[in-house]
């Protein structure tokens, strides 16, 4: 498959989806200080040849302009002539697509994902159990437990990208970068958004439960007085 063989309708649909999701996440204040990046794959997945639309680097992602996105190939190189630069973190998107064959990858920085990644950073993963939103990951067993990987936050992005394969769990569609943010993905934009929202719910839940346990000494272990 070549980029030229992908229909214009399909490319336009990917851009429309990205624009809509970017606006929705901006409304949640999920792009502070130009942080965050979003991508949606176009065309079929072939590990040797795949393409995706991604946010341009350094933009105010709460604004909508004609220069917000560009198309890149599996190596993160622009496939059309453009003055836009793909996200500085495009290599991480490339690696997630390569390893999972997913259809969309979303990355946001939030206070909750930063604090939780730092709190559990030394143990390399965030444990979560018995939280209803775990079902958003299509895990339906009672009292299910998951472990969300945390990678170190190197300034050198390829050093992060090369570690993705070692921590990726096929049942958990997300990876935290310590004190940086989360990458969440799904088979399409709808699913990636669902996963990201579920992760953020879990991080806020964990943050508040840690705070509660540490601030109310008279509570029993099960949380009752
Ligand atoms: C100002 S946030 C630092 C860069 C970052 O982590 C990020 O998510 C945004 O980078 P991009 O190149 O995608 O704009
Ligand atoms: Zn980032």
From TrEMBL:
Family in the record: Belongs to the aldolase class II family. MtnB subfamily.
A GO BP annotation: L-methionine salvage from methylthioadenosine
Gene: mtnB
Lineage summary: Bacteria, Bacillati, Bacillota, Bacilli, Bacillales
Record InterPro entries: Aldolase_II/adducin_N (IPR001303), Aldolase_II/adducin_N_sf (IPR036409), MethylthioRu-1-P_deHdtase_MtnB (IPR017714)
Organism expressing this protein natively: Paenibacillus albilobatus
E.C. designation(s): 4.2.1.109
Amino-acid biosynthesis in keyword set: yes
Key words, A-Z: Amino-acid biosynthesis, Lyase, Metal-binding, Methionine biosynthesis, Zinc
Name of this protein: Methylthioribulose-1-phosphate dehydratase
């Amino acid at each position: 498959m070549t980029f030229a063989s992908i229909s214009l309708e399909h490319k336009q649909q990917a851009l429309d989806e990205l624009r809509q999701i970017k606006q929705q996440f901006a409304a949640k204040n999920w792009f502070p200080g130009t942080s965050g990046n979003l991508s949606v794959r176009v065309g079929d997945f072939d590990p040797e040849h795949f393409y995706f639309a991604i946010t341009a680097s350094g933009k105010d992602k709460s604004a909508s302009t004609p220069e917000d996105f560009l198309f890149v190939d599996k190596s993160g190189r622009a496939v059309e002539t453009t003055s836009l630069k793909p996200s500085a973190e495009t290599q991480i998107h490339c690696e997630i697509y390569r390893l999972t064959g997913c259809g969309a990858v979303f990355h946001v920085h939030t206070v909750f994902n930063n604090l939780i990644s730092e709190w559990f950073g030394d143990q390399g993963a965030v444990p979560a159990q018995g939280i209803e939103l775990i079902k958003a990951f299509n895990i339906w067993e009672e009292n299910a437990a998951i472990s969300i990987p945390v990678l170190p936050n190197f300034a050198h992005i390829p050093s992060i990208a090369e570690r993705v394969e070692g921590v990726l769990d096929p049942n958990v569609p997300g990876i935290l970068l310590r004190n940086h943010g989360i990458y969440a993905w799904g088979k399409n934009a709808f699913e990636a958004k669902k996963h990201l929202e579920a992760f953020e719910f879990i991080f806020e839940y964990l943050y508040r439960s840690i705070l509660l346990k540490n601030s109310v000494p008279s509570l029993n272990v099960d949380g009752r007085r």
